[in-house]
Amino acid sequence: MTAPDFQAWVAAGQNRIEAFLQRVLPSAEIAPSRLHAAMRYAVLGGGKRVRPLLAYAAGEVSQADPERVTVAGAAVEIIHAYSLVHDDLPCMDDDVLRRGKPTCHVEFDEATALLVGDALQSLAFQLLGEYRLADDATAQLDMIKLLGIAAGSRGMAGGQAIDLAAVGETLTVPELEFMHIHKTGALIRAAAVLGARCGSGLDDAGLARVDAYAKAIGLAFQVVDDVLDAEAPTATLGKTAGKDAEQGKPTYVSAMGVSQAKALAADLREQALQAIASFGERGTRLAQLADFIVLRKF
């Protein structure tokens, strides 16, 4: 596939998910209007939508209905958006810039931002219960459970707790990996597996390969983020550059240096590509997304 073809696929997926999010997020004209306005502010008009794109790509492998994948991808993206709102709060990372604009608590206020996260998490699970994602009800319940685990104490929230406890500490690379498998990787894995499970073209072994791919690419995503935080300017990142070092947060860069971190990202990309090699042409979009994630500008 050519690069322009991939870029067109990405743009189409981003537009599809954006339109769906526009539709399912409550209008700011509906009471409580300030909360709804803040929810839309936090979710719409920003971000690369990597998680929904992973869902679409995995859905292509399993021959899933794109409309079903859109719902699953949107649910994961809404959870991700809520996590960013809470991460930016003064009690967490205390940041003022996200996706090139003021963070939610700066634009509105802390109490509203807290409620935005609460309401977005509820909305994500509402979507998974409201739309049909699988032909079998038990399979759909398993999908809801999967996202619940990925977002909770055994996933993203747990990873954030580990991250907060690690400020000022020195972590080994395995300890960093454990943290980020939860904090960043859990939702990325959920996005890919949920997208694949919207279809019926994969057996358990195939789903395991999608999960192995997403585990590797989720870690790679974080490694690249750590390098970019150390090297890229704020204008490029859309969030405050150098924040991790300023706050004394352990990162792959602090644990192994920039050069080794870049090498690790490349190795994780290879692991991801090997996991999906047997899919052949059906895995093309997953392979392209691996490059999209890992080969971002260092």
Kindly describe this structure.
It is globular, with a radius of gyration of 18 Å. With 298 residues, it is mainly alpha-helical. A two-stranded antiparallel ribbon has the order 1-2. It is 71% helix and 1% strand. The chain has a single domain (3-294), classed as Orthogonal Bundle (Farnesyl Diphosphate Synthase), CATH 1.10.600. The longest helix has 28 residues, at 204-231. Helix 4 (66-87) packs antiparallel against helix 6. It contains 15 helices and two strands.
Work out the radius of gyration.
18 Å
- The name of the CATH superfamily reads Farnesyl Diphosphate Synthase
Any idea what the CATH architecture is?
Orthogonal Bundle
How would a crystallographer describe the biggest sheet?
A: 2 strands, antiparallel
Neighbour order of strands in the largest sheet = 1-2
Which band does the percent of strand residues land in?
under 5%
Mean pLDDT across every amino acid position: 93
Number of helices: 15
Cα separation of the termini:
24 Å
